[in-house]
Amino acid sequence: MSTHYAWWLAIAFVVLGPVVGALLAGIDRRLTARMQSRQGPPILQPVYDVLKLFEKDTLVVTRLQTLYLWFFLFFMVISGFILFLGSDLLLSLFALTVSGIFLCLAAYSTNSPYSNIGSSRELMLMMAYEPMLILVPLGFYLTTDSFRVADIVAGSPWQVLQLLGILVGFLFVLTIKLRKSPFDLSSSHHGHQELVKGLTTDFSGSDLALVEIAHWYENVILLGWLYLFFAPWGPWLALPIAFALFFVEVLVDNTHARLTWSSTLKATWWVTLLVGVTNLMLLPLVV
Predict the structure, then answer these.
(1) pLDDT for the residue numbered 196
(2) How far is the first Cα of the chain from the last one, in angstroms, to the nearest whole number?
(3) Mind listing the pLDDT tens digit for each residue in 112-150?
(4) Angle at 232 between CA 226 and CA 234, to 5 degrees
(5) How far is CA 236 from CA 28, 140, 151, in A?
(6) Which of 95, 99, 211, 261 is 20 to 30 Å apart from 74, CA to CA?
(7) Is 224's pLDDT higher than 60?
């Protein structure tokens, strides 16, 4: 990947990331509706919702919440910028983690019971999925001798088979990152959440719009991570596979009941150990 091309790709992410993320969210909602025998909203409905949020009044409990939400969005953009620039994948992961922490801080700052419980659950979920996420760049490093995204994209076509266990583990925690059932414990896109909206209960107006835009960026970042496993096969083959696996999460969301926090933690750590760590230990034998 040339430096010139990488910079254009990173800038395209900053400018067009919310557009692609909104389309992914719209298709997600439409597929969910069809699975539930409903017509569903227009694919651009997430965009209409955010535009409407900017027109509404913003009820601020504390000015800190808005500051934290801007940092949440900022580090989300930084994470994606690093990823699409072809730079360090591990650094991109750290920025993504810091972004999530700022969202929790914003929820905590409202002093609302629903937001506080949602934030506590979100931190617990981070404890569950972060070990598996760390194994992804480590696996790529062992197969390509580099953390750089550009080197991973130019890696061996066999790397997806060499990292099959890590791919399975990543798909498992992707359900948590996308806040899908059975792991939508801290917040939910659906009406079955006993915490109202959990993390985002006390956000409104432009503050809530910032959260939605950041989630659009996050959708694109996670899709980019998924793409890396198949990237050496070329974009014409890798992109359709990545999109297909991404939308499998919609099927999982609509066919599974929510787990408890303790079951989620145990299941995620077991999956990390059995498929992620085991794959990492066997890599020297297959590379």
Answers:
(1) 59
(2) 23
(3) 888 888 888 888 999 999 999 999 999 999 999 999 999
(4) 90
(5) 22, 21, 19
(6) 261
(7) yes
Residues 28-86 pLDDT 10s: 989 988 888 888 889 999 999 999 999 988 888 788 899 999 999 999 999 999 999 98
- Chain-centre distance of CA 226, in angstroms? 10
Among 70, 62, 87, 51, residue whose Cα is nearest residue 205? 51
User: In the chain, where are the structural domains located?
Assistant: 3-286
Tokens 């990390």 map to which residue?
Answer: 272
Quote the CA–CA distance of 33 and 41 in Å, as a whole number. 8
* Distance from C-alpha of 110 to C-alpha of 65, rounded to nearest angstrom: 7
Residue 190 confidence class, pLDDT cut points 50, 70, 90: low
User: Cα–Cα distance between 159 and 167 in angstroms, integer?
Assistant: 10
* Residue 69, pLDDT score: 94
Q: Taking each helix axis as running N to C, give the angle between helix 205-230 and helix 63-84, from 0 to 180 degrees, rounded to the nearest 10.
A: 20
Query: For residue 116, what pLDDT is reported?
Result: 84
Q: Which of these, 150, 98, 154, 148, lies nearest to 126 by C-alpha position?
A: 98
Distance of alpha carbon 57 from alpha carbon 35, whole angstroms: 35
Work out the average pLDDT over 201-208: 86
